[in-house]
C-alpha cells in the first residue's frame, strides 16, 4: 500500500526556485501542528511545541525542490532549448516525456532526439550532448511556441508514482520522501521536545535555502533528512555500491561538504539497535546536502544526516524500499528526542 502523503508530494512539481506548490501543500498539511513561517526565499519553518522544552535547540531539515530543466530559448522552428537545474546525467534525457510551465498552464512535451532510423552506427554509440537536445511541444513556429511558453519556465519529468508492494517508484523522491517523513513527525501528537522543522528550497543548486533557515532558527544541532545514492544496481561491483535498498536508513560519516558529528552518528546506530531497526553506513565520501550549509551557520551547528537509499537518483524515475522508509520514521523520532534532550556539549 502506497503512502498517500508521499504519493501526493512526488506528483507535485517544484524544481529549485519554483517550490510554491510543494510549500503550499506542506503548509496546509502541518498548519495545525505548529507555528508556520514562510521565509523570504520561499521555504517554510514550522515551530513545533513538544511536551518539554529542549535542552539542545534542534532543527530537522528536508528540502522541497527537485532537479529538472528550465527553458532558456525558443527557436524559430518552435523548439525549446533548456539547461538543467541541478545535477542531471545527460544520458537520461533523450526521448523523455516532460511537463513545461506552471501548474496553471502546463504543457506536455518530449525531449527530442534524432530517430534511430536516420542515425548512423557511430552516432548511436555516443552520449548525446545536452546542447544537441531540445524540448518539442509540437509547435510549428517559434511564435506559436512563444504564445504558450517563455524563457524561465519550469520543466519537470512527466513520471508517475507507483508502489509494487516492496518499493516506491516516482519522480522527486529526492527529497519529497524526506518531506513526507517530516510531516509525519510534525503530526505526531506525542512529540517530546520543542523542535524547529525546516522545509528548505534550492538545495539542488547549492543548499541555499537551508543556509538562511539555519541562520533564522539558530539551532545548536540539526538532523538533515535526505535521499541518497544507492548504487546496488546491475553491473556495479559490491564494493562500489555505497548503500543498499533494504539495508535501512543511511548514516553518512562524511561527504563533499560536511564531516558529520561523530557522537550523533553513534547515537543513530544505538537508537536503531535499541528499536531493532536496520541501519547502514554510507560507504563513500561523495555528494552533499543541506548539512553543508547548516553546520557552518553562525557559531557552528552539530549535524547528522539520516538518508533513504534511493536508486536512480536525479533521473526521471527513482526507487526507494518501503521498509527503509518505514524504518526511518521511528529512528528519526528517537534520535531527535535523544539529541534535543541532551546537553548541547554531550559527547
List the helices and strands and how they pair.
Layout: H1 4-11, H2 20-30, E1 35-38, E2 44-48, E3 58-63, E4 68-74, E5 79-85, E6 97-100, E7 107-112, H3 121-124, E8 134-136, H4 142-146, E9 154-157, E10 162-163, E11 167-170, H5 173-186, E12 195-200, H6 208-217, E13 221-229, E14 250-251, H7 262-274, E15 280-281, H8 291-294, E16 302-311, E17 318-321, H9 322-340
Task: Describe what this molecule looks like in 3D.
This protein has 2 domains: 4-66 and 171-340, Zn peptidases (Aminopeptidase), CATH 3.40.630.10; 69-157, Beta Barrel (Elongation Factor Tu (Ef-tu), domain 3). Helices cover 25% and strands 24% of the residues. The chain has helices at 4-11, 20-30, 121-124, 142-146, 173-186, 208-217, 262-274, 291-294, 322-340; strands spanning 35-38, 44-48, 58-63, 68-74, 79-85, 97-100, 107-112, 134-136, 154-157, 162-163, 167-170, 195-200, 221-229, 250-251, 280-281, 302-311, 318-321. Helix 1 (4-11) crosses helix 5 and helix 7 crosses helix 9 (322-340). The longest helix is centred in the last third of the chain and has 19 residues, at 322-340. It is globular. The two termini are 40 Å apart.
Amino acid at each position: 500500500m502506497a503512502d498517500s502523503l508521499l504519493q501526493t508530494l512526488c506528483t507535485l512539481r517544484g524544481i529549485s526556485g519554483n517550490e510554491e506548490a510543494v510549500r503550499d501543500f506542506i503548509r496546509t498539511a502541518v498548519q495545525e501542528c505548529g507555528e508556520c513561517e514562510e521565509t523570504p526565499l520561499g521555504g517554510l519553518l514550522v515551530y513545533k511545541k513538544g511536551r518539554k522544552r529542549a535542552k539542545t535547540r534542534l532543527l530537522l531539515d528536508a528540502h522541497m525542490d527537485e532537479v529538472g530543466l528550465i527553458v532558456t530559448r525558443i527557436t524559430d522552428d518552435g523548439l525549446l532549448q533548456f539547461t538543467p537545474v541541478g545535477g542531471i546525467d545527460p544520458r537520461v534525457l533523450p526521448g523523455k516525456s516532460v511537463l513545461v510551465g506552471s501548474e496553471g498552464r502546463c504543457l506536455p512535451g518530449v525531449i527530442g532526439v534524432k530517430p534511430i532510423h536516420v542515425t548512423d552506427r557511430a552516432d548511436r554509440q555516443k552520449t548525446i550532448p545536452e546542447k544537441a537536445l531540445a524540448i518539442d511541444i509540437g509547435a510549428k513556429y517559434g511564435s506559436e511556441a512563444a504564445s504558450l511558453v517563455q524563457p524561465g519556465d519550469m520543466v519537470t519529468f512527466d513520471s508517475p508514482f507507483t508502489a509494487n508492494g516492496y518499493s516506491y517508484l516516482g519522480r522527486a523522491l529526492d527529497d519529497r520522501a524526506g518531506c513526507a517523513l517530516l510531516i509525519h513527525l510534525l503530526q505526531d501528537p506525542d512529540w517530546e521536545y520543542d523542535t524547529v522543522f525546516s522545509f528548505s528550497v534550492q538545495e539542488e543548486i547549492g543548499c541555499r535555502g537551508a543556509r538562511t533557515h539555519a541562520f533564522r532558527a539558530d539551532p545548536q544541532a540539526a538532523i538533515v533528512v535526505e535521499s541518497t545514492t544507492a548504487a546496488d544496481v546491475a553491473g556495479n561491483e559490491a564494493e562500489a555500491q555505497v548503500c543498499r535498498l533494504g539495508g535501512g536508513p543511511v548514516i553518512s560519516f562524511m561527504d563533499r561538504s560536511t564531516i558529520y558529528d561523530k557522537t550523533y552518528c553513534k547515537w543513530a546506530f544505538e537508537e536503531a539497535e535499541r528499536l531493532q531497526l536496520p541501519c547502514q553506513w554510507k560507504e563513500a565520501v561523495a555528494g552533499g546536502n543541506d548539512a553543508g550549509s547548516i553546520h557552518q551557520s553562525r557559531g557552528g551547528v552539530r549535524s547528522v544526516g539520516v538518508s533513504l537509499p534511493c536508486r536512480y537518483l536525479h533521473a526521471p524515475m527513482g526507487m526507494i524500499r518501503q521498509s527503509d522508509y518505514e524504518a526511518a520514521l521511528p529512528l528519526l523520532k528517537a534520535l531527535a528526542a535523544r539529541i534535543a534532550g541532551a546537553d548541547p556539549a554531550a559527547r
